[in-house]
Amino acid sequence: MSITFDGTDDYLYKDNCNLLDDSSFNSTSYSFTVSCWIRPDGRHNGGIWENTSGSSGGRLSFFTISNGKFRLRYKNGNITTGALVATNSTTWYHVLATIAYGSRVVYVDNSSEADNTSNISSDHSSAGIDFRVGKESVEDSYFNGDIAELAAWKVVLTAGEIASLSNGASPLFVRPGSMLAYYPLGGPYVGSTAAAAGGYRDVLNTNDLAEASSPAFAGTPTQFSSSAGMFYPNTYMGTDTIPFTAASTEVVDETAITGDDVLHEIITANPRSQAGITVYPGGINFKKRDNTESIDAQVQVNELNDRYVKSRRANHEDVHG
Q1: Domain range for residue 68?
Q2: Does 157 map to a domain?
């Protein structure tokens, strides 16, 4: 599912919330990641998200521009990708930005498309910083299309974690203890209403969004591309009591699901090449249902990769000598 914006005056907002901030940040030490899925209705100037005080000092925004490019604006600067947005209205993209004092990177479908490595002092704790989805205030542009699965973390995610998100892992699988906010904007953790108690809810914290004009709840598939079907935890991992509705039609006994089952589902969605053989990098740090640390999935993944590569080599030697 997703939220559909009309490109004219629709957007979601939470004022004076300083969403992209943490008590450990200061003007020369901060780092965060913002991720979401989008389906632009062709090429246009359209704001995807912004965190802004209206001045250059507290300005961060991510948006599309009319020539098919994505742009990340930070303070007085910006970085821009090559032309990537299709001219049709059917393509879903996973877009992600990592922002820190010494670097900024834009990823589209797990590919680094633009970056900047200059040092940028920026105070994200200033009062009056507003968060919006579907609007970019500097360009006064509104997004036309669908946005889903928007999440923010107070860290720069690793390459494996970014790959996992791009391959359809729910943000709740990726360092949930470092998340600043998670907006399914549809998804299995909220109701099918376009309201703060439904499609606009921040399911981890209290930064529920309000609507401007009339964004609409859209019952789109949970597979955003031919290679990425969304994979959600079988148990809701947030701090409130929102009912959980499974995205899958498969009936399962929740108590019978093991960490190995979850690990298998995630790692097999993330192929990469190692020594000429397809293996699976994973990149997820799982936590138990009480949110305490569990086994590091990457350790298991590396062991599985090594075993798989060794077995493939052994088979090759048996056949070819």
Answers
A1: 2-228
A2: yes
